[in-house]
Design goal:
259 residues, Metallo-beta-lactamase, Chain A, globular
Amino acid sequence: MINVTALPAFNDNYIWLLIDTENSQCHVVDPGDGEVVLKACQDNQLELTGILITHHHADHTGGIELLLEHYDVPVYGPAKETIPSLTHRLNENDTLLLHSCTFRIIETPGHTAGHIAYFCKPEQQAPILFCGDTLFAGGCGRLFEGTPAQMLASLTKLSALPDETCVYCAHEYTLANLLFAQAVEPDNSILEQRLADIKILRQNDQPSIPSDIATERATNPFLRTDQAAIKTAAEHYSGKTMTSSTDVFATIRRWKDNF
Ligand code: ZN
Ligand code: FE
């Protein structure tokens, strides 16, 4: 079995451990804080066997050096970004075999120029997606280096993954994202129910992650730019006529930046 465990870090980051329960080996995704990962490995008697990176930001890469001092392991990451100590530079559709699961690389530029996501379909388990700061539960990453068209294309690729795919994003932003989503789409009853559920989870200090692709498609405004209600909301916000999904996306992304 493959098990994915959250290690909370900093204010609102999740570092993900991908654990092979048969042999207690693990990979870590986006170790912004190395101490957190070392402690988790020690406490749970896990051997770190590799590091996966989605993009170059320090809250996703800051712990690499410390981990390499303790474990001599491969470091996988995006070919199109400059990240010290990468041993394997990955591009679209590259594959890597981790704990008998084949992960496929999906290039997801937008938050950063070379951002990648890792996707796999384990046997007899729901598919797994590590998407860094591209797709969040109820939202998406800010556009630091990419264009709205690039980010929309990246999100469209992720949105096409199987419904039951577990979405492991890198931040606990869900509540704020859903409050924004509700401002954009107040008549979405699935969204309303999700917001109520997440409020209870967060009041009890439970993580809201993983999400799944079906839920995101039904409630995340950034995956719903083709919906009439979202287009109308974007037009009201901007006072302009929206002529494409990219227009709608760019408008609601800007709206969220100022929300
Ligand atoms: Zn980031
Ligand atoms: Fe981040």
